[in-house]
Amino acid sequence: MTSEELLAVLAAVGHAQRLRVIAEIVGGRMYVSELARRLGMSRPLLYMHLERLEKAGLVVGSLELSKSGKALKYFELAPFDLHVNAETIAAAVAADAKGTVSDVKGIPT
Amino acid sequence: MTSEELLAVLAAVGHAQRLRVIAEIVGGRMYVSELARRLGMSRPLLYMHLERLEKAGLVVGSLELSKSGKALKYFELAPFDLHVNAETIAAAVAADAKGTVSDVKGIPT
DNA sequence: GTCATATGTAAGTCTCGACTTACATGCTTC
DNA sequence: GAAGCATGTAAGTCGAGACTTACATATGAC
Predict the structure, then answer these.
(1) A96 versus A104: which is more confidently predicted?
(2) Is residue A43 part of a domain?
(3) How far apart are alpha carbons B32 and B50 in whole angstroms?
């Protein structure tokens, strides 16, 4: 895991509102408008947070049609279990050393 | 663990520069000026990040005097291993429900 | 004395992310 | 038709945090 990937997850989860979002859908999938009402949060704002969480791979969204024909966008938790400690952080940062100018294009020195 | 504590750790670690700081002192304790040189970062900026990390309990600083008499502020890693998953997040957010107006002062309803 | 090193902090700038308001669209139901 | 509820997005405001420059202080070496 590169530090960029690690950072995406940590920064995504390092926000009070997004913690609440995650905690709210632990119980099960929910569509955006209902989730917004439950959290007392404006829908566009929730949208932004959900996008961020989805990019980090923590939640998964899917647009579906209800029986009545309405489009509902459901979000559910993606399984994740990240261990944050000195080793994982050091490993992620070390992974960034690859891909620097020194070995770009793999031209032998 | 309350969500406030969890958030302090996650937000502290959710920043590229601070990840680099942690990765750099995994190898051993180091004083601020040397660390700043190694990371190519201004010392006041590094200071700010170190303060943030220390408040979150991820690093520990101690002001010491070298044999030559100069004051050096050493920082080292505090042991930590945080598991970030749905359960820990839900538990932290749920912990915040305590201490709300409903049960402040413990007056029985 | 001056120079080089260290810590600590104050003050200012500036960018990015959080947040709001508003609008467009589509589908039901009345 | 109008009303209600859903998604999706554009545009603008605002504040916190990241970052820089600058200064004060202390010590040792020359």
Answers:
(1) A96
(2) yes
(3) 9
Residue B47 lies in a domain: yes
Cβ pair A86:B93 closer than 8 A: no
Of A13, A82, A85, the CB nearest to B80: A85
Does residue A72 lie in a domain region?
A: yes
Q: How confident is the model at residue B93 (pLDDT cuts 50, 70, 90)?
A: very high
C-alpha distance across the termini of chain B, in Å: 27
Q: Is B8 on the interface with A (CB under 8 A)?
A: no
Please give the structure tokens belonging to residue B71: 């004051």
What's the gap in Å between the CA of A19 and the closest CA on chain B?
7
Q: Which domain holds residue B32?
A: 3-79
Give the chain A residue whose CA is nearest to the CA of B13.
A10
Residue-wise pLDDT for B21-72, tens only, equals 999 999 999 999 999 999 999 999 999 999 999 999 999 999 999 988 899 9
> Which residues of chain A lie closer than 8 angstroms to B93, CB-CB?
19-20, 22-23
pLDDT, residue B102, reads 55
CA distance A78 to B95: 23
**CATH code for position A78:** 1.10.10.10
Apex B4 CA angle, A84 and A61, nearest 5: 65
Domain count, chain B: 1
